[in-house]
Amino acid sequence: MSNRYHLHILVAILMTLGVALTYYQHTALGVPLTPDSKEEIWTVEANLVFDARNRPAKLSMYLPEFKERFQSLHERFVSDGYGMKVEQEDDNRLVTWSIRKPEGRQSLYYTVSLAKMTDARKLKKPGATYTQKNQFSTPIEELAAESLTAEIRSKTADIHTFVTMAIRTLADSDNNNAQLLLDKAVSATARASVLVRLLSHAHIPAEIIHTLPLKQGVNIEPKIWLRCYNGEQWLYFDIGTGDEGLPEDMLPWWKGDGPVFTANGVRNPELSFSISKDVLNSMQLADMRLRGRPSLFSEFSLSGLPVQTQIVYQTLLTVPLGVLVILVLRSFVGLVTFGTFTPVLIALAFRETQLLWGIFLFTLITSIGLLVRFYLEQLRLLLVPRMAVILTVVVVCMGVISILGHKLGMERGLSIALFPMVILTMAIERMSIIWEERGAAEAIKTGIGSLIAASITYAVINIPLFEHWMFAFPGITLILLALMLMIGRYSGYRLSELSRFKALGK
């Protein structure tokens, strides 16, 4: 009883760990479920150009802060001859370039490649829920702001509806109070600053967020949004329409009512944004994400191995899946084979020879080996020398078949060298022993059963989706291990026994 509980607990632990690990890799790390899935990658380039005046120059530009929605895969600065410093300024990231005496037309570049975050997390840092009034410059504007605040409050019920109504009220050209407040606000940033000040009269803190729409093209213009915290989450509002919700293709770049860049000691500074889009295999993108986010997975991931080693493990990790297939065939179907692992190794060889040609080669070499084995029986050899002779004969047969296949233009014959020689030798020896002890029928039945099991295993492990799962999700190996433990306690009837005990049933 205690052993049974022990097994159930062990199976539950392995199954839970396997499912949890697989779920985490897919949702948090972005490992795709299919090998051919694609994802978009955006490359944003900011180009700052200016005329130098042969005097000390200092230029600063805000950089995007990747806290939500998007993840930076690679950042690059091109500024030869310039001193550069990246620092945090309040909630913004700022790069500063400096140089002593530049001459002529100058260009500074910032390029970032980014992709959508797999877990699509929202900004976790909470914001303020109360703020003091931000006074307007004249008493008349203060009265207009108080009047608008009272009017909007009477028609709304919460922060969401208040902010939406405030944006639409300020945009109303027939509202005298709104037009009074917006009299000197010409630019979009100035209008957003008026809105922030108006919201402060209702003690609602708000922030101006500048975003960059991710659409392919040049000279992309940033767009201004309003952001506030309702006590549970951040809300984004379009300052033009009042609609709530930041579109998925908007990249938050910097916060505040200041310009995106400042320049001292230069003339005619201009900043332009260019965006291009590319499509990348999701598995390659997941590897890039892992390298960009150091963790236990990135340090001990199979993707970090050399490419040749990865190719080997892509095949090797299908062995547990093949073993599970053999266990099902032996435990539930009742198929008789040469052990558990021999059919799996034969199935791996079928991956190179293909199924029909592999069955033919296996049958041919095994038949020749059996004939040699029966001949050696007449010589009364000991076990080890007998197996050495059979192994040598197998190698010779493989060489002859490869040469004949090449001469006849049958390139599949060359792949016979990939058959495991030792496995073929042991299979021949095992089949001959069964032949002697149980008869030819039982030996042939076991050989055919092994070929059937190997063929079914080959069909399963050769599915690209399963091969991808086994390599990309180590947790699936734990799930297979739990299933093997469960099969290990099965002692019921097999399908082959239905005909065996058919007479008893009658």
Structural overview:
The chain is an alpha+beta fold and 506 residues long. The protein has 18 helices and 13 strands. The protein has helices at residues 2-27, 139-154, 159-170, 176-181, 188-200, 282-292, 296-299, 307-316, 319-333, 341-353, 355-377, 383-407, 421-438, 440-461, 464-472, 475-487, 497-500, 502-505, and strands spanning 38-52, 57-63, 70-78, 83-89, 92-99, 105-116, 207-213, 217-218, 223-229, 234-238, 250-255, 261-264, 266-281. The strands form 3 sheets. It has a 5-stranded antiparallel β-sheet. The protein has a 4-stranded antiparallel β-sheet with strand order 4-5-2-12, with no helix packed on it. Strands 10-9-7-11 form a 4-stranded antiparallel β-sheet, covered by helices on one side. The chain is 48% helix and 21% strand. The chain starts with a helix and ends with a helix.
Q: Please state how the strands of the largest beta sheet are arranged side by side.
A: 3-6-1-13-8
Tell me the β content.
15-25%
Q: Which class best fits the helix and strand makeup?
A: alpha+beta
Work out the helicity level. Answer: 40-55%
> How many structural domains can be distinguished in the coordinates?
2
Largest sheet: 5 strands, antiparallel
Write the CATH fold name of the largest domain. Answer: Immunoglobulin-like
Q: Looking at the structure, what is the overall shape?
A: elongated
Overall mean pLDDT stands at 83
Total count of strands: 13
Number of helices: 18
First-last Cα distance: 36 Å
CATH architecture classification of the largest domain: Sandwich
- Radius of gyration, in Å, reads 36 Å
Q: Supply the CATH class of the largest domain.
A: Mainly Beta
